[in-house]
Amino acid sequence: MEHFEALIVGAGPAGSFAAELLARRGVKVALFDGRPEGEPKACGGGVTAKALKAWPHLLNAVGRTVDELEMYSPSGKRLHLKLKEPFAIYSRIAFDSYLRDRARAAGAEVFAAKISARGIKRTENGWMLKEVAGASDAEWSGEMLVGADGAGSSVARMLAGPLPPSEMEVAFGYRAPLPESGESPTVVAFLPGWIGYAWAFPRLDHISFGIATTQEAFEHQPLDKLLWDFMLGYYRQREDPRAKLWASRKTDRDRDQRIKAKLGSSAERYAARIPGLNDKTWDARRVCGEGWALLGDAAGFADPVTGEGIYYALRSAELFAESFLAQTPLDYEGRWRQDFGRDLKRASQMRRRFYGNFWGAPFTERMIEFARGHRGIKRVLGDLVAGEQGYVDLKKKLARSALRPV
C-alpha cells in the first residue's frame, strides 16, 4: 500500500490543478482519474476571459479563442457582442488532458481508478482508498482526502451530505459537424418559454450544441425538440442569413429536412448535471473539515444563473492548495467565501429574477432589447459574458449605464 499526503479523487480541472500546485511544492499527491479514456465530460467547454487572465497557461491547451458572440432574446432578437476580452472554447478531452498532464509533470502520481464512497475508509492516520469495481485489489492511504469528482460526487455526499434535486441543473446537447458553408459563430440564445439558455460553441473539428436549465424545469421531450429547433436554425442561418433562429418558414422545409437527416446520422448526444445551489445553502453547507476538502462542482461551485463552473473549479483548487501548503487547510472555508462566495450566493438570489418577467416580458428579452439600443448596457453585458462583471453590483452597473447618454 502506497502512502500519500493528499488523495485527490477526480481529475477534472479542479482536481488536476490542485494536484499540480501541491506536487510542485513537494507534496506527495495521488490523483485518481475514474473517467473512461477518451470519454469527454458533457460541457460546453467555455473558459471565461477572467480565467484566462488569472491563469494564462490555459491558452496552451488546444482550443479556440472567441472575441465575438451572437446573443438572442427568447423572441429571437439578435445582439452582436464584440468582446473586449476574448474567452476560449475547448474540447473537454483536450482541456482536461492538458491539466492532468501538467499535474503528472509536476510530480503527482495519476491512477486510472474510479473511487467511490464505498471504497473510502477513515483510519487513525487519515484515509484508505480502494477501487471497488477495479480489476486489481490495489489500495492507497493518505492524510488529506480531496473530493473533486463532479456534481454527482459520492465523496461530497459522504462528507457534506447530499444535495436535493432542486439544487441541481441539467445540461444536455449534441456534438455535431461544422457547417459546410458560411462561418461558425459562437451563439448563446435564451429559451422561449423556458428557464435557461441554448448554446452553440464551435470547436476545432465540431460544434457543441446544448441547453442548460434547472432540474425542476427539465422536461426531456419538449426541451430536446427545442434544441433541435435551435440547431436547425443555426445551420439554416449559415445558408441563408435572412432565416430565423427558432422558427422556420415554409420555404425552409426542404433545407430543414436535409439538415436534420445529416444531424440525425452524425450528432452525438451527451448530458450532465450541474450544481445550482439555493442562497440559504451557501450559508449552511461546509466544503472542508478535519482531513478533507471539496473542490469545484463537488463543492457546488458553479454559477446558478449560467452553470459556468471552470473558473470556480480552478480558483477553489488554488485557494485550497494555498491553505494546505500554509499548513492551515481549514482556512480554505473562509477563503473561498471571502473570494467568490458572495457572488455565487447573489447569483442564487438572482436566478429566478434573471429568468423571470420585467416590464411585461422576460428579463432576458428586455436586457437584450436595451443592449441593442444602449452602448453602456451592451458593455456591461459583454463584461458579464467575459466573467469580469459579478452579480453583487450588476444591478447598480446596469442602472448607472442606463442613465448615461447613449
Produce a short descriptive summary:
Helices cover 39% and strands 25% of the residues. With 406 residues, it is an alpha/beta fold.
Write the layout of secondary structure elements.
Elements: E1 2-9, H1 13-24, E2 29-32, E3 46-47, H2 49-54, E4 63-72, E5 78-90, H3 92-106, E6 109-111, E7 120-123, E8 126-130, E9 139-147, H4 154-160, E10 168-176, E11 187-190, E12 197-202, E13 207-214, H5 220-239, H6 253-266, E14 268-275, H7 279-284, E15 288-289, E16 292-294, H8 296-299, H9 310-325, H10 331-354, E17 357-358, E18 361-362, H11 363-373, H12 375-386, H13 394-403
Parallel strand pairs: 1-2, 1-9, 2-6, 4-11, 9-16
Antiparallel strand pairs: 3-5, 4-5, 7-8, 8-9, 10-13, 10-14, 11-12, 12-13, 15-16, 17-18
Keywords:
406 residues; alpha/beta; FAD/NAD(P)-binding domain; eight-stranded mixed β-sheet; 13 helices; 39% helix
Instruction: Detail the poorly predicted runs.
Output: none
Rg from alpha-carbon coordinates = 22 Å
Cα separation of the termini:
67 Å
Q: Which overall shape is indicated by the principal axes computed on the Cα atoms?
A: globular
SS class: alpha/beta
Query: According to CATH, what is the class of the domain at 2-40 and 91-165 and 278-351?
Result: Alpha Beta
Please state roughly what percent of the residues sit in beta strands, choosing from under 5%, 5-15%, 15-25%, 25-35%, 35-45% or over 45%: 25-35%
For the biggest sheet, the summary is: 8 strands, mixed
How much helical structure, as a percent, in the residues?
25-40%
CATH architecture descriptor of the domain at 2-40 and 91-165 and 278-351: 3-Layer(bba) Sandwich
Mean of pLDDT: 88
Q: Give me the oligomer status.
A: single chain
Give the full name of the CATH homologous superfamily of the domain at 2-40 and 91-165 and 278-351. FAD/NAD(P)-binding domain
Please provide the count of β strands. 18
